[in-house]
């Protein structure tokens, strides 16, 4: 464990902090910390930064409720930058976007890696701006009853594939079900973070460990 006194702050007493989602690896924001905000972040377990524009400390989520719960912090090889992995309560960007980095300026030829967040955003856009010939737009147009019917059908297909012990078919049907569940979430105004927060609140791993210790 590196002593924080070895960190190299710039001539203004600041160090850049790259904040990422601990579960997805997505970069959420780039902010700055000074010694005080770093100490508060470590004390409270939530990100606290130094606002260069307002010249004051600010705890992320203090006004929006979108706190960032720190999983861990690491520094780079030169000890002059921080990587802060968090589990966010909501969007990182003040615009309401999941990440502050959402304005593309260049698309290379390499295929972009799949992410649930990117898929969710694309489906959400289909709801707000329907596209002719789009199956997703069709589902949103038909409404909740149609979406629920498809969720039920795909759930049955997953069960059939699993009962037949057909791994490839089961994977295919789970993907179909996941897609339709995401459409349902958007229709009902449920975010990915809502589901993650619910799962995190159950402390599934912690409970299992405690139960195992109790039976020893």
- Which CATH first-tier class of the largest domain would you pick? Mainly Alpha
Mean pLDDT: 90
Spell out the helices and strands N to C: EEHEEEEHHHHHH
* Major β-sheet annotation: 4 strands, mixed
Strand count: 6
Overall shape: it is: elongated
Radius of gyration: 22 Å
Terminal residue distance: 32 Å
Main sheet: which strands, in order across? 2-1-6-5
Summarize the structure.
The chain has helices at residues 35-44, 116-128, 135-142, 144-163, 167-188, 192-202, 204-214; strands at residues 15-21, 27-33, 48-51, 56-59, 68-75, 82-88.
Task: Explain how this protein is built.
The chain has 2 domains: 7-88, Ubiquitin-like (UB roll) (Roll), CATH 3.10.20.810; 116-208, MazG-like (Helix Hairpins, Orthogonal Bundle), CATH 1.10.287.1080. The protein has 7 helices and 6 strands; from the N terminus they run ββαββββαααααα. It has 216 residues and is α+β, with helices and mostly antiparallel strands. It starts with 14 loop residues before the first strand and ends with a helix. Strands 2-1-6-5 form a 4-stranded mixed sheet, with helices on one face. A two-stranded antiparallel ribbon has the order 3-4. The chain has helices at residues 35-44, 116-128, 135-142, 144-163, 167-188, 192-202, 204-214; strands at 15-21, 27-33, 48-51, 56-59, 68-75, 82-88.
